[in-house]
Design a protein that fits this description.
Number of domains: 1
Structural class: alpha+beta
CATH superfamily: HIT-like
Order of helices and strands: HEEEEEEHEEHHEEEHEEEEHEH
Low-confidence stretches: none
CATH architecture: 2-Layer Sandwich
Radius of gyration: 20 Å
Strand order of the largest sheet: 3-6-8-7-12-13-11-10-9
Mean pLDDT: 94
Helix content: 25-40%
Length: 339
Amino acid sequence: MDTNLQDYSHKRYNILTGEWVLVSPHRAKRPWQGQNEAISHEVRPKHDPNCYLCAGNTRINGEVNPEYQDVFVFTNDFAALQSNSKTFSLDKGLLKAESETGICKVICFSPDHSKSLADMEVEAIHKVVEVWQQEYKLLGAQAGINHVQIFENKGAVMGCSNPHPHGQIWSQSTIPNEVEKKDTQQKAYYLKTKSSLLSDYLQQELEIKERLIFENDDFVVLVPFWAIWPFEAMIAPKKHCNDITQLSKQESLAFAEAISVLTKVYDALFDCSFPYSSGIHQAPTNGENNEHWHWHMSFYPPLLRSATVKKFMVGYEMFGTPQRDITAEQAAQRLRDLV
C-alpha cells in the first residue's frame, strides 16, 4: 500500500461521478464518544401473519399475496411515482418544475420472513437475479420509461419499514441525478478511448489487488478507490456489458455468488445482520446507443467501527465534500479476511 494514502489527509477522485471524497486516515485513531446504535437480536419467524409481504397475507389495499415459493413481484401499493400523473411543467423565472411519471414495484426475495440475502443459497439468489433481468427488460420496453432503478434498503437504520427480505424497482421517464453523472463520465471516456471506463479500472484493480474482496471467473467484488461509506463495496462484471440482461445463465449465477459472498462477509464483520442500501446502475432504457455503459452494483453500508457505531453524513459532508476515516484499502483487507 502507498503509505502516504494510509497516513495523511488527501482526496480521491470518483471516476464514475467526477466528484471527490476527502480521506482522513489519521482520524481513525480518535476515541469514539458519539452515538451507539442498539443491536437488534430479534429472531424472526419464517412466516409473520402481520407482515404484508409474507405469502398468503392480505396487503393494506385488500389484495391477497399468492402462496409464492421463491420470488414474488407486485406493483407498489404506495408508489413514489404515478403512471397516470398529469403532464405539466412550471417555468417562472428561477422556479422550474416538470411532471414525472413511472412505475414502482416491490420484489420479495423469499417467502421466508426470517431470511436476508446473506441467509439464502446461491441458487435462490440466482432466481432474484433472473427476476431483476426480466423486470429491467419488461419495464424498460414500455413507452415513457427511460430508466430502471433496482435497489434494496436493508435494516431499520436504513429506513426499511419491513424486515421481510425484499427490494424495490423504480422505473421512470427521466434519468436520475446519480445515473446522469455516471452516464456523462462513462460516455466521455468511451468516446476518447473506445474502451469501457470500468473495464479499464477493473483491470488496474485486478493487477494491484489491494482493494479486492473476492472474484470468480466473471465478477469482481471490491472496495472502490473512491469509496465514501466505511465498508462500501462494488460488484462489477469483468466483461464489458451494458445491463444485466446481457449476462448468460452462467454469468448470472456468478453474479448471485458474488452477492452471496459479500452479504455473508458483511454479516460476519460485526456479527450482526449488516444494514446497507444497494443498487444496480446500468444503461438507461431510452433507446439510445448506450454502449459506453458498464453496469455495476454498489453497496453503501453505514456501520463504522462496530455493530453499534454508525457513520453519519453531517457537517462538512453536507456543506462541503463527503469524508471518510478508514481507507478503502484497510476496509477491503478487513472484508477480504472474512471471505
